[in-house]
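Quick check before the chapter quiz. The format below is the same one you will see on the exam, so make sure you can read both the input and the output lines.
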Amino acid sequence: MIVMMSPDRKILKLSAVAGCIVCAAALCVFFIGRYIADNRKPCFTEDYVLYVYPDTDPGTVLDSLVSGAGALRRGSLERCARKEGLGTGMKPGRYVIEPSFTAIYTIRMITRGWQTPQNLTISGTIRSKGRLARKISMQMMVDSSQVAEALEDTAFLAGYGFTPENVFAMILPDTYQMYWTASVKDIFDRLKKEYDVFWTEERKSAAAAQGLSPYEVSVLASIVSGETLKAFEYPKIAGVYLNRLRKGIRLQADPTIAFCYGYTLDRILKKHLKVESPYNTYKYRGLPPAPINVPPKACIDAVLHPDEHGYIYFCASPEFDGTHRFAVTYKEHLRNARAFQRALTVRQREKAASAG
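Here is the expected output.
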């Protein structure tokens, strides 16, 4: 016997089926929307550089992405963080976040270590290892104490062909791209690589033409660097010192005296010229044992390609503009020196009068 379903029951069954279809569709829409939000939609409003240290926790990373990068959906980041194992798989590094990045891509950057290289810039006046160590650590993850230790480590530096005394010759001021997480060894490997690239056969030949080795060029370049901040004077000053070297005249370079006193002197006096040190170029002929600072490349090239002239002397200009006056004879040099001393005396009196 065939039992006929009542119209009401049919309606109920159809309603149930329709309800299931609607729920399923709603769930599909929900999960598809979540997938799109996590995997397809841009998640940020600001460019941001995120630094992840070895002890950074996931919560701090997410907070930084919200506050720094202007994350639009923290929920998306949290879901992706759980999915990708951010809590246990986070890689230290420097990550550049762009507004177009999705949540999943950003989290994967951090868990897979897709870093953006950092510019390590070595520039300015560097007269001490401590300053060099601080300059590097301010731009990289390594601590300044680690760099300072490496700069004093005889065995470590021997691997590069240098010593704690002469390591400044290996350092070439420039901008180097490397990962922020680079170790001290990674950094020194890169510096040595660039040093080797810099010293081409052409530069080595130019050094030989001046009667110098590449190392001696760096030593003399450090003295030139210590004499002036005016780059256009580098070749002329280099020419003066090369003339003195060829004639067997002591260099008598004030920057070497400043080095002997650890750059603590406000003014170099006659008594300071008697300091006992192999770096005292007033006392000993030839070049000092090692560079007295980290010379710029322009100073090195100035020694390789100096101005050709007959100058043997130079002193600061009485104009106090950072330039120098040059002389062939000692008599001419004395006139220049007296002019500077007179100008300095007048300046000091004017300063004292204005202070009083």
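If your answer matched, good. The chain has three domains: 48-112, 118-198, 201-311.
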